[in-house]
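Structure first, sequence second, as always.
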């Protein structure tokens, strides 16, 4: 076939691609190769039943198949105008079904046991996650191209009523039209942006369902007179508006008046034959000529055959060996493989030790095929469907007479021929086996020539083994009988001393056991170190696990119950520089989880310039794998001028659903156009195509099939039809890490230079439109195609707005301006334009152009209903969003009013502007508030600092205790500061007592709570300051002078000062225990600071008490112990707190501080009930209320109302130790005065 393309940035070229071989049973265009239409009847239709279907349903399913196929043949005959019906069908039964039991599985026709090499056209399987039991077709190619297969659920066939069989036959007929003739669904899908469920009818502009229903016909597809080309469904898009009937009549079955209407009035009754898969029959047909004697090629053949026969061919298979040159002979008769006898060793060693010297040009391939058939006939099983593995150099063309005879023999016996080109050189392109391979649904695998001097590299031997393993794996055998798969294969070049290090992954899709193998050219190339590390990090010693097979040049280790995850290995590599080691890991597929790759190419037509498309289907059992990374590798055969292999070409495949080339997203089929491959010759160049798939760094998922058992008769009414632009799955699950490879085969490419570039970009088939009813703007979106199909970057785009669908298809209409700059292939393109065609349906078509002016095909034509603008001011309404043009519903009719527009802005624009401004103002307000608070805080701090510098400081606490400790570093942070007027040092000489007795402590306690310590010498000032607070019921603050005095130079103190002795606790600080009592008290007797007695001050204050007010007098009387009972709360003081430093100056000066207006009243309790009696442990200290707290008789003239109880939550304090843990303080140690901590 011819395909045009060009070289990037240089002269253009035309390249011709010829498919020389296609993978056996995995080629889409050959999936129907077994179906033949002869005299208006289809023959060769194959239907298989999945191995997972229970045998107990055998009779129900077989009866259902019989009834459905009979009805299907009648409906097909009527739908095609008496042109075709079904003549015969072959049903392939599962191997596990026992057909001898008539009660569970009774068949009514002959049963043939054979290995079926061709794929089934209809699969009877378990329910699909989306379509359930409803029949559906996987379609991977374009309009007029056949589908891949039909699948339906087994439960649908178990129904026992004729109505159910009739409905199933109707559904099957609809899918048959897609499968056989390449039409698509003529309906839309809810939520599909490309193929919507509704559209506007072109004649009435009314919203109608996007579907085609033939009038007065039982056919599931529309005839020409019923067809609506404007409907945006999948069929109209891919077939450019042609009716389904036109596509059918243009197919190979009916083109040029083939199979005209039959004279028969009744349809054919299908003749059903039963086939049960039997044990495979395999013949190894090996070329034995002089060319095999070069560079140890024959030695490698013998080792590869032994490896495959001894380890890979499943038990129960029959194997024979035939060699040929000018004549052919059998070296091993057909024998059944088992693990009991020595048959594997005998067959594996049956190859001649030395090749013949007969020239290659004298070989007789026909002789070898005839001898292979005689070997098959000598066996005890049928030779029909046998597999022949042909190992040949491929050099030299086969005479036409011999080729025709081989094709006749192969097709008559339904043989399946796999070809391995060994070694693949530049001359292998002339092997002339294309017709034979195509006729037998075979494939071509290659082994690259890697000869070095008189030897060949060990990698060449391993490649031959892998090719043989691949052909064995493709046999139609149950999963439990499949040979092992290659999990990991890596070649390591030899050197003086090196380590071969690598890793591999064992995932859940493999069986529990695995095999680790090391292939070598010479045994001495493998060192003593072979180490395996499990995914959990355990190092496995391989000394007792190694097995060696010198006949296959392999050392292997079986790993039972291999741990899932990533393994690591280290092997000592002692190979020479021109040799090396090959490390492989193999494992069997799991019976329940099988990740498989199926590859094919588009159909070849040598008279057409259609490009070649690569397809790869990645599935987990019967379910597709989504979001996988799939790469096609194109390896040119032969070597370059330097003697090295050509660099491979890698092509990423995608399941994008953009329509060209990928039809449906989510079906697990990954596609891409074959790229341009430049050559220096105009001859055919062979490439081997290999497909690799992996989990895409954990992104791969697969649908969950959680279908529950339901009544099979109602299945067809509840399930979705296949398929829109994508398949939507309700539930998916992530897959563990995996990697698979599949060798597709060899393709031949002819490339020659030409001055003209005739390769166009691909079609745009995912065009979507959004229309804004507010601004009358049309937004178009699509996926960027390539310059040459889906390769490169287009030059520019063009789009038209047309009044009719036909004008848009002809690309006639108003040209859209402002098209976007082309993006790389696969990117999304977006453009917006203003529409001024009002009151009508407009149609849009977009296509891409390359630099040479070639344009791609027409895109899917989208339609948009444009209402007329309102003539009067509409009432305020909420704005409508962007409207999908092809999925209009009643809410998007032309009567919908437009939103409010202000000064040329619509509501959306105004909302954005207002929101932006409001957000900006909000941020500014936050910043301004923060700055204001920060500045205010700084000002307060500066003000307080100035007050501290200009005044003396006092520690003020409403409820406090003195913490005494010898450790100077243990400062308290809880203190209070208040500016007071300092008293002179003469009135209050400092105390010099180094230690304090308990009686002194009690006296100091009483003094601290007396008035004499809180008043100044000027009683007049006290009287004035106390007047506003006569009714205040808050306790007075405890005042202690700090050591931050500042005296003017004229008042500087001349008398040295020293700190008063601190109260030294008689316990260790590190023995504190939790304080178990409530903190609802003011002071206890032991919480007093050690101050000396102030008797002179008492007498002085007593003499002046007569001059005090009624409120001040009790303060003076309290100092002398004469406090009246009418003033029980006179010592309430305001709680003013601030920070204070540790005292360093005398504490002889104390003043009375007047309470503030904000002071809180607090009742003073004589002694709380929960107060611990720590003071009882002190000698001479009697635990009882002091005189100042004692109740005294009142004179009756004064009365103070009772104060309400007010609960306050104190801050947390350090716990106090038990008395038993207190340690006495030595008398010669100067106690340290600490600052005050609130209790």
């Amino acid at each position: 076939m011819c395909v045009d393309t060009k070289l990037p940035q240089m002269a253009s070229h035309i390249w011709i691609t010829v498919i020389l071989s296609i993978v056996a049973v995995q080629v889409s265009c050959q999936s129907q190769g077994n179906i033949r239409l002869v005299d208006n009847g289809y023959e060769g239709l194959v239907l298989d039943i999945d191995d997972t279907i229970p045998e107990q349903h055998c009779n129900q399913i077989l009866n259902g198949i019989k009834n459905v196929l009979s009805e299907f043949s009648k409906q097909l005959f009527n739908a095609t105008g008496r042109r075709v019906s079904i003549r015969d069908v072959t049903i392939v039964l599962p191997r596990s079904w026992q057909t001898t039991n008539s009660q569970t599985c009774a068949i009514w026709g002959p049963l043939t046991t054979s290995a079926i090499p061709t794929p089934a056209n209809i699969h009877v399987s378990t329910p699909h996650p989306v379509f359930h039991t409803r029949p559906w077709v996987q379609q991977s190619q374009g309009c007029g191209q056949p589908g891949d297969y039909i699948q339906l659920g087994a439960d649908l066939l178990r129904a026992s009523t004729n109505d159910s069989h009739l409905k199933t036959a109707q559904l099957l007929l609809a899918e048959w039209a897609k499968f056989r003739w390449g039409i698509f669904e003529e309906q839309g899908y809810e939520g599909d942006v490309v193929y919507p469920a509704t559209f506007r009818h072109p004649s009435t502009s009314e919203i109608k369902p996007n579907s085609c229903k033939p009038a007065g016909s039982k056919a599931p597809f529309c005839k020409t007179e019923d067809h609506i080309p404007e409907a945006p469904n999948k069929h109209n898009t891919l077939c450019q508006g042609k009716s389904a009937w036109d596509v059918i009549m243009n197919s190979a079955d009916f083109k040029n008046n083939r199979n005209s209407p039959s004279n028969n009035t009744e349809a054919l009754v299908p003749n059903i034959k039963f086939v049960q898969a039997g044990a495979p029959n395999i013949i190894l047909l090996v070329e034995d000529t002089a060319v095999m004697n070069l560079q140890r090629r024959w030695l490698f053949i013998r080792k590869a055959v032994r490896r495959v026969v001894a380890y890979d061919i499943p038990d129960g298979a029959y194997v024979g060996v035939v060699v040929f040159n000018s004549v052919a002979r059998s070296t091993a008769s057909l024998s059944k493989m088992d693990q009991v006898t020595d048959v594997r060793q005998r067959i594996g060693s049956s190859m001649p030790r030395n090749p013949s010297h007969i020239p290659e040009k004298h070989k007789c391939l026909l002789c070898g095929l005839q001898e292979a058939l005689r070997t098959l006939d000598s066996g005890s099983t049928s030779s029909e469907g046998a597999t022949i593995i042909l190992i040949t150099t491929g050099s030299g063309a086969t005479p036409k007479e011999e080729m025709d005879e081989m094709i006749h023999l192969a097709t008559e016996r339904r043989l399946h021929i796999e070809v391995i080109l060994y070694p693949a050189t530049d001359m292998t392109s002339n092997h002339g086996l294309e017709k034979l391979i195509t006729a037998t649904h075979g494939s071509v695998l290659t082994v690259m020539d890697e000869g070095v001097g008189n030897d060949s590299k060990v990698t060449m031997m391993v490649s031959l083994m892998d090719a043989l393993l691949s052909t064995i794996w493709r046999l139609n055998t149950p999963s439990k009988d499949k040979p092992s798969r290659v999990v990991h294969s890596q070649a390591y070049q030899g050197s003086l001393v090196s380590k071969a290090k690598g890793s591999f992954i064992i995932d859940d899709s493999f069986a529990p056991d695995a095999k680790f193998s090391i292939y070598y050219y010479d045994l001495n190339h493998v060192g003593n170190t072979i180490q395996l590390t499990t995914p959990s990090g355990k190092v496995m010693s391989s000394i007792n696990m190694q097995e060696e097979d010198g006949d296959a040049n392999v050392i292997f280790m079986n790993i039972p119950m291999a741990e899932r995850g990533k393994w690591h290995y280290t092997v000592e590599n002692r190979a020479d520089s021109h040799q090396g080691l090959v490390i492989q890991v193999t494992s069997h597929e799991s019976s329940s989880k099988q990740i498989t790759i199926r590859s094919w190419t588009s159909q070849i037509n040598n008279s057409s310039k259609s490009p070649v498309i690569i397809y790869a289907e990645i599935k987990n059992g019967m379910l597709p794998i989504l979001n996988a990374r799939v790469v096609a590798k194109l390896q040119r055969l032969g070597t370059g001028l330097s003697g090295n292999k050509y660099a491979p070409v890698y092509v990423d495949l995608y399941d994008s659903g953009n329509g060209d080339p990928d039809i449906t997203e989510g079906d697990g089929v990954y596609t891409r156009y074959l790229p341009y491959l430049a050559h220096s010759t105009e001859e055919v160049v062979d490439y081997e195509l290999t497909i690799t798939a992996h989990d895409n760094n954990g992104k791969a998922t697969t649908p969950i099939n959680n279908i529950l058992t339901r009544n099979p008769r109602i299945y067809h009414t509840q399930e979705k039809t296949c398929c829109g632009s994508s398949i939507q799955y309700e539930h998916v699950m992530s897959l563990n890490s995996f990697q698979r490879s599949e060798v597709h085969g060899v393709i031949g490419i002819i490339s020659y230079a030409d001055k003209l570039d005739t390769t166009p970009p691909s079609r745009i088939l995912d065009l979507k439109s959004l229309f804004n009813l507010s601004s009358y703007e049309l937004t178009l979106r699509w996926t960027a195609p390539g310059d040459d199909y889906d390769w490169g970057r287009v030059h520019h785009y063009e789009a038209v707005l047309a009044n009719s669908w036909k004008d848009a298809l002809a690309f006639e209409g108003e040209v859209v301006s402002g098209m976007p700059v082309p993006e790389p292939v696969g990117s999304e393109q977006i453009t917006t334009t203003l529409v001024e065609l009002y009151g009508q349906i407009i149609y849009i078509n977009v296509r891409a152009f390359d630099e040479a002016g070639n344009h791609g095909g027409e895109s899917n034509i989208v339609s948009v209903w444009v209402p007329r603008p309102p003539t009067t001011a509409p009432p305020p309404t909420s704005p409508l969003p962007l409207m999908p043009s092809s999925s209009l519903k009643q809410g998007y009719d032309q009567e919908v009013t437009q939103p409010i527009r202000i000064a040329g802005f619509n509501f959306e624009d105004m909302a954005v502007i207002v929101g932006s401004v409001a957000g900006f103002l909000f941020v500014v307000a936050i910043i301004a508030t923060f700055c204001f608070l920060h500045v205010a805080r700084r000002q307060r701090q500066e003000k307080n600092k100035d007050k501290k510098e200009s005044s003396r400081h006092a520690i003020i606490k409403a409820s406090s205790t003195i913490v005494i400790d010898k450790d100077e570093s243990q400062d308290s942070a809880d203190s209070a500061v208040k500016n007071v007027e300092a008293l002179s040092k003469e009135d209050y000489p400092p105390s010099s007592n180094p230690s304090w007795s308990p009686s002194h402590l009690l006296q100091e306690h009483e003094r601290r709570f007396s008035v004499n310590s809180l008043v100044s010498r000027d009683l007049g000032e006290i009287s004035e300051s106390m007047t506003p607070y006569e009714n205040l019921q808050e306790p007075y603050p405890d005042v202690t002078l700090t050591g931050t005095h500042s005296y003017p130079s004229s008042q500087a103190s001349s008398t040295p000062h020293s700190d008063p002795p601190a109260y030294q606790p008689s316990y260790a600080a590190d023995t504190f225990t939790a304080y178990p009592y409530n903190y609802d008290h003011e002071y206890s007797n032991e919480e007093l600071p050690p101050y000396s007695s102030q008797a002179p001050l008492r007498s002085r204050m007593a003499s002046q008490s007569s001059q005090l007010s009624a409120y001040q007098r009790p303060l003076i009387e309290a100092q002398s112990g004469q406090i009246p009972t009418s003033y029980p709360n006179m010592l309430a003081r305001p709680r003013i707190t601030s920070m204070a430093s540790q005292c360093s100056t005398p504490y002889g000066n104390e003043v009375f501080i007047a309470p503030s207006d904000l002071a809180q009243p607090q009742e003073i309790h004589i002694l709380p009930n929960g107060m611990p009696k720590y003071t009882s442990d002190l000698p001479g200290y009697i635990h009882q209320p002091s005189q100042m707290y004692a109740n005294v008789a009142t004179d009756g003239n004064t009365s103070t109302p009772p104060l309400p109880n007010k609960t306050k939550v104190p801050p947390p304090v350090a716990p106090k130790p038990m008395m038993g843990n207190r340690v006495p303080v030595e008398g010669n140690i100067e106690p340290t005065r600490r600052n005050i901590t609130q209790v």
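Margin note: The mean pLDDT is 75.
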